[in-house]
């Protein structure tokens, strides 16, 4: 059983200039897959392909969970200057047709967990970068999708917010959601990810559990960073 199946033959920003090739992997319920690789390897292009944001994508991308839905948590906060935090949440709820009672209960729970309840009627443009990033987490978790697509989530988060985020991911995985997470924080990825997809120069160079990555890199006792260095 899967919640996401990816078989990209090639994809890019222009038809005749593909940036990624032969990207194949799947995400299962409760699994946290780390998408890792050096800068320019194709991680962002892969994520944009999954969300249908590229002009050219040849292959198949299937969201196979019960709702066939995903939630996206971007690296850089996306917001409207004239809207309060609560209005951002209302907009997200409307986009996903959340019933009002479900929305209010879920939104208030998340605001409490991420310690934003006291600023929910303020403009996020005045927030710190960390608070803005926490707003992205709240919006991402609001709809309880089948799959979370998460891009560099630790940027701007303090240790407490990072712990809150990881705890929420655990709860969502227990619910049956899958997670695809791009990150450069390899020590954390090694600790929390179920498996990995390592990309370099637009192609998958290794995939699987840490033990499988170690075997593919020829480093049976190597850390994820050691394997990363050897394979890229």
Describe what you observe in this structure:
The protein is built from eight helices and nine strands. The model has no long low-confidence stretch (mean pLDDT 94). The protein has helices at residues 43-50, 85-95, 100-113, 129-142, 159-175, 186-192, 210-217, 224-231, and strands at 4-14, 17-27, 32-36, 56-63, 70-73, 147-151, 178-182, 195-200, 203-208. It has a single domain (4-231), classed as 3-Layer(aba) Sandwich (Rossmann fold). Helix content is 38%, strand content 26%. The strands form two sheets. Strands 5-6-7-3-8-9 form a six-stranded mixed β-sheet, with helices on both faces. It is an alpha/beta fold and 232 residues long. The protein is globular. α3 (100-113) packs antiparallel against α4 (129-142), α4 (129-142) runs parallel beside α5 (159-175) and α7 (210-217) crosses α8 (224-231).
User: How many structural domains does the protein architecture include?
Assistant: 1
The CATH C-level class name: Alpha Beta
Strand order of the largest sheet: 5-6-7-3-8-9
Helix and strand sequence: EEEHEEHHHEHEHEEHH
Question: Strand fraction band?
Answer: 25-35%
Give the end-to-end Cα distance, rounded to a whole number of Å.
Answer: 31 Å
Which secondary structure elements does this structure contain, and how are they paired or packed?
Layout: E1 4-14, E2 17-27, E3 32-36, H1 43-50, E4 56-63, E5 70-73, H2 85-95, H3 100-113, H4 129-142, E6 147-151, H5 159-175, E7 178-182, H6 186-192, E8 195-200, E9 203-208, H7 210-217, H8 224-231
Parallel strand pairs: 3-7, 3-8, 5-6, 6-7
Antiparallel strand pairs: 1-2, 1-4, 8-9
Helix pairs in contact: 2-4, 3-4, 4-5, 7-8
């Amino acid at each position: 059983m899967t919640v996401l199946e990816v078989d990209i033959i090639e994809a890019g920003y222009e038809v005749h200039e593909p940036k990624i090739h032969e990207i194949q992997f799947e995400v299962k319920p409760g699994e946290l897959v780390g998408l890792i690789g050096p800068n320019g390897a194709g991680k962002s292009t892969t994520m944009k392909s999954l969300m249908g944001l590229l002009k050219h994508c040849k292959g198949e991308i299937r969201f196979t969970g019960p709702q066939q839905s995903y939630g996206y948590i971007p690296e850089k906060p996306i917001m409207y200057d004239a809207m309060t935090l609560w209005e951002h949440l209302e907009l997200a709820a409307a986009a996903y047709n959340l019933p009002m009672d479900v929305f209010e209960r879920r939104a208030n729970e998340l605001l409490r967990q991420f310690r934003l309840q006291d600023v929910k009627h303020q403009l996020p443009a005045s927030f710190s970068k960390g608070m803005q990033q926490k707003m992205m987490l709240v919006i991402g978790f609001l709809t309880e999708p089948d799959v979370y697509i998460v891009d560099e989530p630790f940027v701007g988060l303090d240790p407490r917010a990072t712990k809150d985020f990881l705890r929420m991911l655990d709860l969502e995985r227990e619910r049956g959601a899958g997670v695809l997470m791009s990150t450069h924080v390899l020590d954390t990825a090694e600790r929390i990810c179920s498996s990995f997809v390592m990309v370099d120069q637009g192609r998958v160079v290794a995939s699987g559990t840490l033990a499988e990555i170690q075997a593919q890199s020829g480093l049976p006792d190597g850390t994820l960073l050691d394997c990363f260095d050897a394979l890229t």
